[in-house]
Amino acid sequence: MYGNDFGAPDDPAGQSLLDQVEAAERELRSAAERRLAGDDHLQGYFEAIIEADQKVEPRDWMPDDYRRSLVRQIAQHAHSEIIGMQPEGNWITRAPSLKRKAILLAKVQDEAGHGLYLYAAAETLGVSRDELVELLLSGRQKYSSIFNYPTLTWADVGAIGWLVDGAAIVNQVPLCRCSYGPYARAMIRICKEESFHQRQGFEILHTLAHGTPAQREMAQDAVNRWWYPSLAMFGPPDSDSTHSERSMAWKIKRFSNDELRQRFVDMCVQQASVLTLSLPDPDLRWNAEREHYDFTQPDFDELMQVVKGNGPCNRQRIEHRRRAHSEGAWVREAAAAYAAKRAVREPAGV
Ligand SMILES: [Fe+2]
Ligand SMILES: [Fe+2]
């Protein structure tokens, strides 16, 4: 499967995830050209946009709850990209070769870029990036719990790329069709880059799995540790998911947590066999009736513990982020001073 964007086995059209991203991009462009029958009433107009699969843009009226829900989701997503730089960033100085170092450096920089696109998308909803950063640093907004697990060996960089970026893609490809235009457009670009991340992780694991017995063991150990936390990335089961129903009605979310988790499992089984590594689930087997793999659910109590701040690295991650933020104050000040000087020297429109 290396070198090929993994096709979801349950996808009737047989499209790869990247094909789906391309299709969403085309749809996004054509939505902008469609005209809506005029409805002067704001709520009616908003509902008509959603109904017609058009995009809600920053200039459009939108219900407060829709705005709040998007800010929460986009901010959490942006924070995850930024905090997610830490577990892999830890390995930049210890990458086993110059080539691996350059690739990992580029990957971690991509994640910073994803954070930037997403903070910019959130700002179109009327919040400032400073406010959002403050909400993260004070613990009032969350980031994905997966980044509260430690990276113990070099193989973890492979397992994160394959499983964590892989799960992120499965979660995020449907967001390319999200009803809010700036978020959908950011997701298209992000998904294309995540596809590269997933492949680099797969390639690291493939190399280790075909290396010395010790390297192979290291790869298997990393997969064993990252498998269930990756399954937990899809969130609580549908029966306990608080925000899902409304997000689906607003077409922010297109598939439920459980549907996406199943799609991810089906995809990984095939890829694990190419890696010649096993997934740590004795009950993983094909169910011909459902045409999906049966699998053991992740430990959702553990997920809730990590969400509440009791994961192995919660404190370390946020302390590191706070320190980086305060040590970077001079950079923000210098950038603001430079922008102010330029504005005087080159007034807008000149
Ligand atoms: Fe990312
Ligand atoms: Fe990524």
Kindly list the characteristics that best describe this protein.
single chain; 350 residues; mainly alpha; two-stranded antiparallel ribbon; 14 helices; 2 strands; disordered N terminus; binds fe (ii) ion
Structure description:
With 350 residues, this protein is mainly α. The chain has 14 helices and two strands. A two-stranded antiparallel ribbon has the order 1-2. A hairpin with a 4-residue loop joins strand 1 (285-287) and strand 2. Helix 5 packs antiparallel against helix 8 (181-209) and helix 7 (155-172) packs parallel to helix 9. The radius of gyration is 21 Å and the shape is globular. The chain starts with 16 loop residues before the first helix and ends in a 5-residue tail after the last helix. Mean pLDDT is 90; it is low at 1-13. One fe (ii) ion binds next to helix 8.
Structure at a glance:
This is 1,2-phenylacetyl-CoA epoxidase subunit A. The protein has 350 residues and is mostly helical.
Itemize the secondary structure elements and their pairings.
Elements: H1 17-33, H2 42-51, H3 64-83, H4 85-89, H5 98-123, H6 129-137, H7 155-172, H8 181-209, H9 213-232, H10 244-249, H11 257-275, E1 285-287, E2 292-294, H12 300-310, H13 314-327, H14 329-345
Helix pairs in contact: 1-8, 3-5, 5-8, 7-8, 7-9, 7-11
Bound molecules: fe (ii) ion (2 copies).
Pfam families: PaaA_PaaC (PF05138)
InterPro entries: Aromatic_CoA_ox/epox, Ferritin-like, Ferritin-like_SF, PaaA, PaaA_PaaC
GO molecular function, one term: phenylacetyl-CoA 1,2-epoxidase activity
